[in-house]
Amino acid sequence: MKKLLTIFMIALMAFALIGCSSNSTSGGGNSDAGSSGSDSGSSGKPDNYSIMFATGTTTGTYYPLGAIFSDYWNKKLDYVQASSQATNGSVQNLIFIKQGEAQVALTPTGTLYEGYNGEASFDGNKVENVRILAGLYPNVNHLVARKGAGIESIADVAGKKIVPGATGSATEIETQRAMEAYDVDYEGLGKDFVGFTEATDLMRNKQTDVAMVMAGVPTSAVTEMLSTANGMLLPYTPEAVDYLKEKYPWTMEYTIEANSYENQPEDVLSVAQNNFLVGSADMPDEVAYDLVKTLWEGLEELKGSHAVIEQFDIEKALEGTSGIPIHPGAEKYYKEKGILK
């Protein structure tokens, strides 16, 4: 009897060891099964994924959009912890993507193209790890002049004082290009590199003559300048628009429709470029897919959050990408929706 009991115990222990070995092998197989083998992004949906969303100055359009998107993703995706951060704008946003300090950002086409290809302010500093998630809405140039400053057209800005945007920002670059289109010497202008709020104060106190605001329509900074600082929008001429479109192919003609702002009774001709939501190439494909899917499928719910969201259109989500790669996770979603073939 003792011998039978001993044999039974040995057999029981052997089965237990076999079971442990089987469970261990099975767990490793499930882990490997999630691999997608894509060139950018990585495999598998993480248990937790933190996102720093690089936006823009606090009075522009990027800043509230970053907060709205981050809050919405946190609500809809239980594994995502997203937070938005104010920045100096799109140039800094792409640097943050390159350095791994941001996982998601907003940027206009021109800055995105120059960053990815290492041109202009990114000379020798390519941002090759940026990927497109979605095209959202046009980023419009608003050149606002102070009434009484002797400025009736953009050509009259010569020799005046201007707030061109933060140093090295896309807004400053667009200011330089606007001056270039009118043969105005940018270096000969008096410049204050301050934010939109400070620009409004300077205009109100007659300490500056012009400010450039690059943002979606409408934007609070321009609303403030036109309603409280005696500002007026300066139109581009058709010739200047044609010049900019030819030299900088991502540039689009854009009309700021009458009454988009208080004290703006007439249409104002301007230029714009598409704004893109971008992410790091290191973002897992499944995360990119979920962020894009959640954004587009929650559009009706989001529309009351900011006026510019009314302009979002998934049919235009990949227009004007200028050869910048689309994130594989986003690509999967757009193929499902028939936007990509």
Automatic annotation (TrEMBL):
Arranged from A to Z, the UniProt key words for this protein are: Signal
Source taxon at top rank: Bacteria
Q: What are the boundaries of the signal sequence? A: 1-26
Q: What is the name listed in the Swiss-Prot or TrEMBL entry for this protein?
A: TRAP transporter TAXI family solute receptor
**Classification via SUPFAM superfamilies:** Periplasmic binding protein-like II
The record's NCBIfam families line, in alphabetical order, gives: TRAP_TAXI (TIGR02122)
- In this record, what's one Pfam family? NMT1_3
| UniProt cross-references to CDD domains, sorted A to Z | PBP2_TAXI_TRAP (cd13520)
